[in-house]
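Data deposition worksheet. Section B asks for the primary sequence of the deposited chain exactly as it was used as input, without tags or linkers unless they were present during the calculation. Section C holds the resulting structure in token form. Section D is free text for depositor observations; keep each observation to a single sentence. Incomplete worksheets are returned to the depositor.
Section A, Depositor: J.P.
Section B:
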Amino acid sequence: MALNAPHLMALLNMAPSAFVGGDIGPMPAMRSLKELRKEVRRQFASLDGQDQEALVLWFNRNFFRLEK
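Section C:
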């Protein structure tokens, strides 16, 4: 099943007020940090590994809360 990763980019582009009001769309179905890392690498390939990992941690902390 292909993940709908444009949602990751949409999360970065939203106004902070959208998070408070709960106006975010459906989240992609991430089952593990491994899947999240793979999707971040695919969507943000131009970033270096350290920045990609920072995004993974940010997405996980703020949206997914997957195992560590």
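Section D:
The mean pLDDT is 77.
The first helix runs from residue 6 to 13.
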